[in-house]
């Protein structure tokens, strides 16, 4: 029996049902075949430095040999505590080659948060940025099972770590046989509880790429040879996707979509590590002839629009003619911001409704010709349903609330958390579904209106209020740049709806709280209107663009 499968059985990780159908496709094996076919094409580019597919494959093989020589094997977990850059995809590819399991780590995490991920994932190796070395040093003594600590960047690695260049100096690891049952971990923080590792098999990851291959006029590959042939045809036709991952690779939006881009021989680019610079983003789109841009909602799109507005006013325009698609997922992407970007450049904006636990729940496609259906309004995905509490489909136009559910392909569940796995991936109607907790209503035309995650729902006077719905309404006001809505304890209502708001420096009307309240009352039922609005200089969000409700609540309670 394959030792990796034996190890999975002992750890309680079930094998996916699709493996019974026969041989399956592994990402590393497919990428190796792609590299053999389009080796001179660029695979990764950062800061103007391009890495060809041949070099990408070679460098990952050298890193894999370093990990192997330090005792890692199939099934070992490799934590990636890195910023965007070439090292992240190279280290991930190295883990895949070894049949190890890459695990993303939020680079905002401090000592105890990092320690939790290392413990929960059973990490045996850690790639970390030099700027995060102090945090690693603080906790590494707790984890004797860490066999390799590899520092990326910096002038020199501390004595307890291996420098990235040293790790690359190993001879390349020999290629090995692999299966589609190997795993990829995507840690998700959610809105409550500790982060959990969503376990995706390579089979399920490939199944999620069907739309990407279809958009290029290709069927899903079933073998490495087919993947290589597809990459060759696409390269010859000049149709390779050139993706700029503006959102962090450690976040699902860029993490999942970049796997699809690379699997047909495309190219991924990232911005320089550090704070998000929208001017740099548009410069990279121009210089690298980017065709696809990956962002996380308004947290990225609003600064991007401001940058375009400034450039237009100064008559210094970037050449964006190559850009065909802006893909967003994870947080709200409001209609006015989409319209603003489209006014500057004619492309397609796809707002995807999904989560770490499943992609393709819904989407909204907007262009100059195809008008926006409205913020938080989506077309239901072909594998998605909306179920009520009885496990029945919500009737369109009924006004009933239900939870979004997604059918196959879906993850195996959460690593080492069977209780939460059973809750999030229940059996409904005789089959297994992914139900992360997003609530929605189904309109008469079959489209859905997203209400938000139930775990963040506010119960005020017996009425349910979803923060995202109120945030969307407030952000429709031209003076509001960003906002967070939370519930705080209230003697009368149980919980009161309150908001933290960031206003535009150019807007003066929005400075009047009463004006914001009037705006809210025009578009929201009275019980949903914030009973208090606190104006701040800047809304705090995570690096993935998601709201930091804990910060907002603590700020409101302290004030």
Write up this protein.
By secondary structure, this protein is of the alpha/beta class. Among the domains are: 173 residues, Rossmann fold (3-Layer(aba) Sandwich), CATH 3.40.50; 79 residues, Luciferase, domain 3, CATH 2.30.38; 102 residues, ANL, C-terminal domain (GMP Synthetase, Chain A, domain 3, 2-Layer Sandwich), CATH 3.30.300.30. 33% of the residues lie in helices and 25% in strands. It is built from 18 helices and 28 strands. The protein has a 13-stranded mixed β-sheet, sandwiched between helices. A 5-stranded parallel β-sheet has the order 4-3-5-6-7. Helix 3 crosses helix 4 and helix 13 packs parallel to helix 14. The radius of gyration is 23 Å and the shape is globular. It starts with a helix and ends with a helix. The N terminus is likely disordered.
Supply Rg.
23 Å
Name given to the CATH architecture of the domain at 3-7 and 24-41 and 53-202: 3-Layer(aba) Sandwich
CATH superfamily descriptor of the domain at 3-7 and 24-41 and 53-202:
ANL, N-terminal domain
CATH class of the domain at 3-7 and 24-41 and 53-202 equals: Alpha Beta
Neighbour order of strands in the largest sheet: 2-1-11-10-12-13-14-15-16-23-22-18-17
Strand proportion, as a percent range, falls in 25-35%
Our measurement of the CA-to-CA distance between the termini, rounded to an integer number of angstroms, reads 61 Å
Shape: globular
Estimate percent helicity: 25-40%
Uncertain ranges: 1-7, 14-22
| Major beta sheet summary | 13 strands, mixed
Average per-residue pLDDT, rounded, comes to 90
E-strand count = 28
Helix/strand/pairing category: alpha/beta
Count of runs of 4 or more consecutive helical residues: 18
Q: What is the third-level CATH name, the topology of the domain at 3-7 and 24-41 and 53-202? A: Rossmann fold
């Amino acid at each position: 029996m394959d030792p990796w499968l034996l190890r999975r059985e002992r750890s309680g990780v079930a094998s996916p049902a699709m493996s019974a159908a026969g041989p399956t496709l592994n990402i590393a094996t497919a990428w190796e075949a792609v590299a053999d076919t389009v080796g001179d094409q660029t695979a990764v580019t950062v800061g103007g430095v391009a890495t060809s597919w041949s070099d990408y494959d070679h460098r990952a093989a050298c890193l894999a040999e370093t990990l192997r020589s330090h005792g890692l094997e199939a099934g070992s977990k490799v934590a990636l505590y890195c910023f965007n850059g070439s090292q992240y995809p190279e280290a991930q590819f190295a883990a895949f080659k070894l049949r190890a399991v890459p695990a993303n780590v939020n680079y905002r995490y401090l000592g105890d948060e990092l320690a939790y991920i290392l413990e929960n994932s059973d990490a045996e190796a850690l790639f970390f940025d030099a700027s995060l070395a102090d945090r690693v040093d603080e906790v590494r003594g707790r984890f004797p099972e860490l066999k390799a600590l590899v520092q990326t960047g910096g002038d020199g690695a501390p004595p307890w770590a291996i420098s990235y260049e040293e790790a690359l100096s190993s001879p390349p690891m020999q290629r090995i046989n692999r299966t589609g049952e190997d795993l990829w971990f995507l840690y998700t923080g959610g809105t409550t509880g500790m982060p959990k590792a969503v376990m995706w098999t390579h089979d399920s990851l490939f199944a999620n790429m069907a739309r990407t291959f279809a958009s290029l006029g290709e069927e899903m590959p079933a073998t490495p040879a087919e993947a290589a042939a597809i990459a060759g045809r696409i390269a010859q036709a000049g149709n390779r996707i050139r993706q700029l991952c503006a959102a962090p690779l450690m976040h699902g939006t860029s993490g999942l979509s970049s796997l699809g881009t690379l699997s047909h021989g495309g190219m991924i680019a990232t911005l320089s590590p550090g704070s998000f610079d929208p001017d740099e983003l548009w410069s990279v789109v121009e210089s690298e002839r980017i065709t696809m841009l990956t962002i996380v909602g308004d947290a990225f799109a609003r600064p991007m629009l401001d940058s375009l507005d400034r450039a237009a006013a100064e008559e210094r325009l970037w050449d964006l003619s190559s850009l065909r698609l802006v893909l967003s997922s994870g947080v709200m992407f409001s209609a006015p911001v989409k319209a603003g970007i489209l006014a500057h450049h004619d492309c397609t904006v796809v707002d995807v409704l999904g989560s770490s636990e499943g992609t393709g729940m819904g989407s909204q496609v907007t262009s100059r010709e195809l008008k926006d259906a409205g913020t938080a309004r989506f077309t239901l995905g072909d594998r998605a349903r909306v179920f009520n509490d009885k496990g029945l489909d919500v009737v369109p136009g009924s006004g009933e609330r239900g939870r979004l559910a997604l059918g196959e392909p879906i993850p195996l569940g959460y690593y080492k958390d069977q209780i939460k796995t059973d809750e999030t991936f229940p059996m409904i109607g005789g089959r297994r579904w992914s139900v992360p907790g997003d609530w929605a209503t189904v309109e008469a035309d079959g489209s859905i209106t997203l209400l938000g995650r139930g775990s963040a729902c506010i119960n005020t006077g017996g009425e349910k209020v979803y923060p995202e719905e109120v945030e969307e309404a407030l952000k429709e006001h031209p003076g509001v740049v960003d906002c967070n809505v939370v519930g705080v304890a209230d003697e009368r209502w149980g919980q009161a709806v309150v908001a933290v708001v960031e206003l535009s420096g150019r807007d003066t009307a929005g400075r009047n709280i009463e004006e914001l309240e009037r705006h809210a009352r025009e578009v929201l039922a009275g019980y949903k209107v914030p009973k208090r609005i606190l104006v701040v200089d800047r809304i705090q969000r995570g690096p993935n663009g998601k709201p930091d409700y804990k910060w907002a609540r603590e700020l409101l309670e302290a004030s």
